[in-house]
Design goal:
homotetramer, Alpha-Beta Plaits, TIM Barrel, 11 helices, 34% helix
Chain lengths: 346, 346, 346, 346
C-alpha cells in the first residue's frame, strides 16, 4: 500500500500515519521528494484497509498494490485450473459446449432441447428452474418441479445439469439435483448466496454482474472460495453500457483479462449478452479464439413460444452450425471438445 | 402493445399474429400503411408479453405502451403516498432527515452518532448491522449484536431505526428489531429478498440498483408491493457511470422522474453517491429542491477510525450546517421537517 | 509520479528506470518494501509522461500525482474567477440566467424568445446559428444569417449573445457577432476548435463532452487557456449513461467537484441534460444550490413548431416561475442576479 | 412513424395531428383500441421529424420506424461494399491487415515500423502526423513533416498510407499525401470535418465515437456519404464503459450488428480498444471470426520510447504471430488476405 501525502501535509500528519501503522504491527517507509512525501506500508494489507487512511489529515492518495482476492488470484497459483462437472472438464485444453433451454417449461420441451444440445456435441445441459426476472409479472420458473424435470432429462441423456439458484435458502435443495450451481448476473453481489454456494459442495458457475468490474467479479468469486470451494467457473455475459442495439455489451476482453488475473476457467454466454439469435454464432466464435474455456448457449425446440428469452434461443440447425464452428476453432486454439459421457441410463 | 411489421411481412405473417392474439382472448387491430403494417393489441398485456411476438416471422418491432409496474405506478393512484416509520412521516409535505453511522461498530459509537443526528434534527436513525461488502475481507457488520445495539440506542434517543437486511433468511429477525427495513443497491434485483421484505409487515427503503434504470427500480418495488406491502420508500443513491471523480454518479433527475411515474416517496443518499464528505452538503441541498422527500446521511463521531465508508461520514458541525440548510430549503419547497418524537424512555 | 515495481522486478530493471529518469534531469527515490520496490520521481512531470515508463521491464503501476491541467487548476490560483460577458459577470457572487432559443429560426421567433428571456430576468441571450446535429437530415442552423438575427436582437433587447461555433474555420466570423463563443458537447475534444476559440479574444463557454470525465473536461479547457484565453465558463450538460428516461444524466456532483479543482465558473444546462420540459425547473433549482454560477435555458415562443429540441423548451410562464425560484435560491446561496444592462439602443 | 396517443388524448388532439400531417403532404391512419389511439404516418419521414410531434398535446409516444441513414443503409443496398484503398480491397472476401506506428516520430522509426508491417503481410500502412491528444501537453504530431515522411515510406515500401485528419481545414493537405483519410473517435461528431472528408475524393476510415451508439456511428457515416463519398470503412475501436481494466471496451458485437445495418466494410482496432499489448492478439482473432473485414494494429520498433501509446504497440515477433493467426482465421471465414502490391519504386 502506498500513501501519497498532500502537498500541505505536516510532519505531524506524517508521524500520525507512521504511528498508526506501527501500532497495528506494520512497517511504514517514508520517502521525501521535493514537493511531496510518499509512505510505503508493509504488513497485513487487509488490516491496513480497515484503518481509513484516506480519512486522515494530510493524506492525498492511497493506492493498494496487492490484489483484493487471493484464493482465486493467479499470483500464488500460476497454473490455470480445470473444474470437473459430473466428469466433464472445463478449463485449459478443452472447449466445453453447454446448451439447453433458458427456462425449464415442460418435460418434453426440456428433453427436446437436451437432445438438440447432445446431438450437436454439448456435454453439459443448462436449464433454469428458478428464474430471476426483472418484472414480477414474468414467468418465474417451475421451482422444484423444474429440478425434477432436469434430473429426469439427465437420466435420459447422460448430460450433467447446470442450473441457477437465486436464494441462499434453496441452495441445498438445488444442489441435491444439480451437477453445477449457477449464480446469475443479478445476484453477483448477493453475498449470502455466494457464501451458501461456497459451502454446498458442488461446482459453481459465477456470472459476471452486468455492472461489475472484472476486479469486483473476482472478489465475488473470492466469497465462494473462502468457504472452501475452488471449483468455480467464471462466465462473462455482457455488461451494461449506453448501447441499445444489443441487450448488453459482451466484454470480450474480459476473457483474456480475467484469465491473466485468476486461475479459474472463464466461459462466455453469447445468448444473454447479445440477446439476439443472429449474434450467437459470431459471438461464440469470437469467444473461443479470445481464449474462452467454453460457451453456454440457449436452445429451444420452438423459440416463438418460449416462456423466457425466446428471441435469443437457437434452433437445431443453428446449433449444429455453431458446434461445427466451435470444433474447428477449438483445434485452432490447440484444444479439444470433451467427449460426451456414456448414457447414465445405458 | 403495438407491433410494427417488417417491410417484407406477408399476409400470412400478419394473420398468424392476429390468430395468436385472439387465441389468448385479446384483440388485434390491423392498420395498413403504404410500406408497413401496424398491429395494435388490446387485452391482457402481461399475457401478450409471454407470447414472444418479437420472435414471430415478419415482426419488425414490438412496443409495449403500458407500464410494467401497476401497484406502485401513479397511473391509478395519482396522489403521492406518505409512508409512516415509527410515527415519522416520509412523503409530500415533509422533508425527513435520516442520519446515523454507516455501520454499527460499538454501543458507544452508535449512541454518539445517534445523539449527533438527533441534535441536528434527524427523526430517524440509520445504521447497518449487516453490511454487504464488495471484498470478503472487509468488515461485514456485527449481525444480531448490532441489531441489539440499535434497539438500545432507539430506547435511549427515541429515534426509530432503519437498518439493512441482506438475506431473505434474516428478514424476520431484522424486522423484529427494526422500524424500517433497507434493501441495498447490490440487492436491488435479489427477488427472493424483495419478496421476503414485502411480507415482513414493516416499511421498506429500497435503494436503486447502481445499474438499474428507473423502470427497473420501480419493477423491483413492484415485487415488494405484490406481497401486500405498499409502505415503500425509494432511495436514489447514485448510478455507475464512467466518471471516477465520485464513487457513483448521483442521478438527481431520478427524483422528479420517479415521483412522476410512481406515488411512492423518493429520498436521496448523498453520502454513498458521492462517497466524499465535501459533497454531502451540496448534494443534499440539490436533493431537497429537486423535490426529494428526505435525505439519508452517514455520520460518525470519529470518521478516521470508521470501519466502513469513513471518508464520506459527516461529523457533528457538518451535520448542524446540513440540518440548517435542509430546514430553510424545506420551507422554500413548502414543506416542513417532521417533529422529533418524545423520548420512548421519557 | 510514483512507480510501483512488479513483484518480480530485478535490480537492473530498477536501475534502468533510475538512469532514464536521471538522464532527463529528474530525480528518482527508491524505497524498498518487503515484497515490492517503489520509485518516486521528482522533476518535470510532463517530460516523464513522454518516457513510456509503463512500457519498461519490471514496472507494475505508474501513478501521476500532479494534475494534468495547470492554467485552469485551482492549485496555483485559489480564488475562483469571474468571467465578464458583454458586461455581465459569471462567477462567485452571482447567479447568471442565460436563456434563448435552441436554434435561431426567424427574426420574429428569436426576438420573442429574447423578450421572454429578458422579461424573466435573463442577462444573456443564447441562440444557435450553427447546429451540430446527429442526423445529417436535421435542421443545421441558418449560419451567418442567424448570426445577423442575433446581432439585431441584441440591438433591440440589450442582451449580449452566446452562440455556438462548430468549425475552427468559422471562429473569426462567429466572434465578430458574438459576445461569447460556445463549444458544444460533440466538439469537446475537437482540439483544433478549442485552440481557435482560445485565440479569438472572446469569452468561451465550454460544454462538457457527454463522455468526458471531469479531468478530461478540464484538459479541454486547458487547450483554450494555453492560447492565452482564461475567460472560460464550464457548462455541465449531462453525461451519457445507461439510463434512458432522460436524454442524458445530469451529473450534479460535477458542479462542486469542478469548482474545487478549477478556478473557472461552472454553470448548468438543465434543458439539454434532461431533454424534458418538466425537468427544467427542478434541475435548475438543484443546480443553483449545488453551487452553479448560472444556468442556461432553452425557451421558445411556440415549442411545438420548434426546429430543434422543442420538447425541452420552456414557454413564458414556465420561465417566470424558473426566474422567481432562481432569485430566491440565489439569495439562499448569498448570491445575487446580475442587473440587466441598459438597452443598447436606448 | 407511429404515434401512440396518451390515455387522456381528446378527439381534437387527434384531429390536430391528422391535420398537421396532411398539411405537409403526408397521410395519417388512425386506429382506435380500447384504451388508446394509434396514428400511423406515411409520407416524407424527415419532414415529419421536423414537426415536433412529441411536443403536441395528447401525444404519448412517437416511434420512428425507418432508419435515419439511407445512403449507408443496407436496406436499399443489400450487397456489402468493397472499398479500394490504393489498390487494396477492404470488404467481404478479404481480411485486410493495416499496421504501422501510432504516431510518425522520425523517418527511421516510421520506415522500420512499415517494414515490420510489410514483413508480416500488412497491405496498408497506418501512421499519425496529426494526433488528437486529451492533454494539451502531450505530443501532438509532426504535422506536414509527418505526412512527407509517410509519403517517403510509401515510396520505399509500396504500402498505401492511412492517416488521420483532425481539422476540416487540413483535409485537402492531408488528402494530397494520403491514400485514405482517418477520422478519429474524438471527431466522430465533428460534422464540419465529416463533410470535408466527404468532399475530398479519398476513401475514409471512420472510427466509432467512444460514446456513439451504432446508430449514431452510421449517421456520422451518412454525413460523409451525403457529400458523394461512399468509400467509407467503419472502424470499431472500443466504447467508454465503467470498466477500467482496459482503456475502452471493445464492442465486438458491433461488427455483425453494423454489417447487418450497413453495406459498408467494418474493421476493428484492437490496439486502441484494449490499450494493452497482451490483448492485441486475442482481440484481433476475435475480430476476424466475428466477421471483421480487417484489423488495424499499432506497431513500433521500440515501444518503450514511443511518443504515443507505446504500451499497446506490437513489436516484430508479436506481429508475425498475429499475421499468422489472421491468415489461418481468414481461411476459416472463407476469406483471403489481399496480396501486397508491387513496390511503387520497383
Amino acid at each position: 500500500m502506498v500513501i501519497v501525502m498532500a502537498a500541505d501535509a505536516t510532519p505531524s500528519d506524517i508521524q500520525a500515519i507512521v504511528s498508526l501503522v506501527e501500532s497495528t504491527g506494520g512497517e511504514a517507509f517514508v520517502s521525501r521528494g521535493v514537493s511531496r512525501v510518499i509512505i510505503g506500508l508493509v504488513g497485513d494489507i487487509d488490516r491496513f484497509d480497515t484503518l481509513n487512511l484516506r480519512g486522515m489529515r494530510g493524506v492525498g492518495n492511497v493506492t493498494r498494490i496487492s490484489v483484493k482476492y487471493k484464493l482465486v488470484s493467479r499470483e500464488h497459483h500460476p497454473d490455470r485450473s480445470v473444474v470437473q462437472v459430473g466428469g466433464v472438464p472445463i478449463g485449459p485444453g478443452t472447449v466445453t459446449l453447454i446448451a439447453g433451454p433458458c427456462a425449464v417449461e415442460t418435460p418434453q420441451q426440456t428433453l427436446q432441447a437436451a437432445e438438440m444440445a447432445k446431438a450437436a456435441g454439448a456435454t453439459l445441459l443448462r436449464g433454469g428452474a428458478y428464474k430471476p426476472r426483472t418484472s414480477p409479472y414474468a414467468f418465474q420458473g417451475l421451482g422444484e418441479a423444474g429440478l425434477r424435470i432436469l434430473a429426469d432429462v439427465r437420466e435420459q441423456t447422460g448430460l450433467p445439469v447446470v442450473t441457477e439458484v437465486v436464494d441462499a435458502h434453496d441452495v441445498d435443495l438445488v444442489a441435491s439435483y444439480a451437477d453445477m450451481l449457477q449464480v446469475g448476473t443479478r445476484n453477483a453481489q448477493n453475498f449470502a448466496l455466494l457464501q451458501a454456494v461456497g459451502a454446498a459442495g458442488k461446482p459453481v458457475m459465477l456470472k459476471r454482474g452486468m455492472n461489475a468490474t472484472i476486479e469486483e467479479w473476482l472478489m465475488a468469486a473470492e466469497y465462494i472460495a473462502q468457504r472452501g470451494n475452488l471449483d468455480i467457473v467464471l462466465c462473462e455475459r455482457g455488461i451494461r453500457t449506453f448501447e441499445t442495439a444489443t441487450r448488453n455489451t459482451l466484454d470480450i476482453s474480459a476473457v483474456p483479462v480475467a484469465q491473466r488475473l485468476s486461475h479459474l476457467p472463464v466461459i462466455v454466454d453469447p445468448s444473454h449478452s447479445g440477446g439476439r439469435r443472429d449474434l450467437v454464432l459470431p459471438l461464440s466464435r469470437a469467444a473461443i479464439v479470445a481464449g474462452a474455456d467454453g460457451v453456454i448457449i440457449d436452445v429451444h425446440p420452438q423459440p416463438e413460444i418460449a416462456l423466457c428469452d425466446g428471441p435469443q434461443a437457437l434452433v437445431a440447425e443453428d446449433l449444429q452450425e455453431l458446434a461445427h464452428a466451435i470444433e474447428r476453432l477449438a483445434r485452432f486454439m490447440d484444444r479439444r471438445l470433451p467427449a460426451q459421457r456414456e448414457l447414465l441410463a445405458g
